[in-house]
């Protein structure tokens, strides 16, 4: 069965179960809340899924989030204009991606080790420079609108994440960049032989991943009027879980943005349902782990049958 | 048809005086060879004879220390697969260098997509690529659906895609490196047929192989190498497997005064 159909059915079942236990689940207020919770992880996951289709792997996205948040907050504190503050934060995330990309694609450091290194180094650096302090500031309204504003009832983070997915969906379906991402992820050597600059392409995918992580940090900062060192903790694992549950292969070359949206929603609804039902949150952690293992098993089984 | 006309022009791909050392080992020593469009030339020799090293210089994976690659007597520079493809040299690897997760049409166009819109914001012209692919498939009398992913295809169909891609790239030369190694009898026969198809569509083909039976069944000319040097060259119909084996193993070395039978 098609993975996305399966996920939609699973989501409907999950929602029905939660609604039976707690009818408050199915209110516009709660559902918008779920979407808003999912938005930030969703933005980061868009970068992670692009990267994983391209055969990469990024554990450092959580640090990209906290990096983006601290750059934008520090920039405002130093009274830089909004556009410059945001640009600097995005550039910071992009720079993280460049470092990851050079280390992995050009120097050949395994992605797991490279991004584990930048995960620690960047978070450590932010902790050291900030002394672990939260940076609160009276941000201009135009900035906090990114995190707190509504357009026609829809929270801005939801609009931002929707735009991110639409843009990357079109890129994957309609541009050479999308074709090259699949080609490099399927077989980087063969892609190179076809004349594609595979190393540069993979580096670009790390840059996209880092930049989107920083964007998520900006949205978080705008939402709570502060940057804290807890931003982005465990994001890497949640994003990879969402992406894999959404049907993206661990081996590269296969994966979809709509699947990732479903994976992100699934995780958010599990969390929300467990809150509403008053079930132990530890059970949510267990449920996500079980689902992840299930998805990974399907992926490995599918790959094995295709190889033979 | 277009390709037949190209063949009658007779382009020539030439390797002239090429040498390459790896450390203290001279892998290729002053090797020269030529192929013209519309013929199949085999490069044969035992393991370590330097055949693959020579072929890798045509894809840009290896840069020679000395010597030149020429097309129609003009020297060309090959720094990577992109260069060789632009020069009309198609390297056909044993896995055929197809991307399993992409469609037939996407594979044919990979690296040379047909785009629409301004260059800074261009998008894929999927319809046009399907049309081009369908036209090629019809021209080559193949039975393929351009929208089909490559991973479901049989070995023969995959080779057909590789051929269609070479024709689409307007390749004038094709290089096969050990195309039948590790293949069964039926696959081998199909592969040899595809190699002949490349020639019949007007390409000049170089086949690196150490399977003499295959070599004798399809080639027009045989170049024998040993220990990094060309030790002999024969027209296929004028020689015998025994003579070629003799050359490969080191009988009469006549590498210095190779005749060009073109």
Polypeptide structure, described:
The complex is a heterodimer of chains A (308) and B (262). Helices cover 77% and strands 3% of the residues of chain A. By secondary structure, chain A is mainly α. Chain A has a single domain, classed as ABC transporter involved in vitamin B12 uptake, BtuC (Orthogonal Bundle), CATH 1.10.3470. In chain A, the strands form 2 sheets. Chain A has a two-stranded antiparallel ribbon. Chain A has a two-stranded antiparallel sheet with strand order 2-3. Chain A starts with a helix and ends with a helix. The mean pLDDT of chain A is 92. Chain B folds into 2 domains: 175 residues, Rossmann fold; 71 residues, no CATH class. The N terminus and C terminus of chain B are likely disordered. Chain B contains 9 helices and 12 strands. With 262 residues, chain B is α/β, with parallel strands linked by helices. In chain B, strand 9, helix 7 and strand 10 form a beta-alpha-beta unit. Chains A and B meet through helix 8 and helix 9 of A and helix 3 and strand 8 of B.
How would you summarize this macromolecular structure in one to three sentences?
The complex is a heterodimer of chains A (308) and B (262). Chain A has helices at 3-21, 28-53, 61-77, 82-106, 111-130, 141-148, 156-174, 176-186, 188-193, 198-224, 235-245, 257-277, 281-307, and strands at residues 135-136, 150-151, 154-155, 226-227.
Low-pLDDT ranges of chain B: 1-7, 252-262
Given the helix and strand composition of chain A, which structural class is it? mainly alpha
| Main beta-sheet strand count, sense and barrel state of chain B | 6 strands, mixed
- The end-to-end distance of chain A, rounded to whole angstroms, is 20 Å
* Rg of chain A: 19 Å
**What's the overall geometry of chain B?**
globular
CATH architecture of the largest domain in chain B: 3-Layer(aba) Sandwich
Q: Kindly, what is the distance between the CA atoms of the first and last residues of chain B, rounded to a whole number of angstroms?
A: 24 Å
The run of helices and strands of chain B is: HEEEHEEHEHEEHHEHEHEEH
The CATH homology group name of the largest domain in chain B: P-loop containing nucleotide triphosphate hydrolases
State mean pLDDT of chain A (0 to 100 scale): 92
Strand content of chain A: under 5%
Q: What amount of the residues of chain B lies in strands?
A: 25-35%
Number of individual domains of chain A: 1
The total number of structural domains of chain B is 2
- Per the CATH scheme, the topology name of chain A is ABC transporter involved in vitamin B12 uptake, BtuC
Beta strands of chain A, count: 4
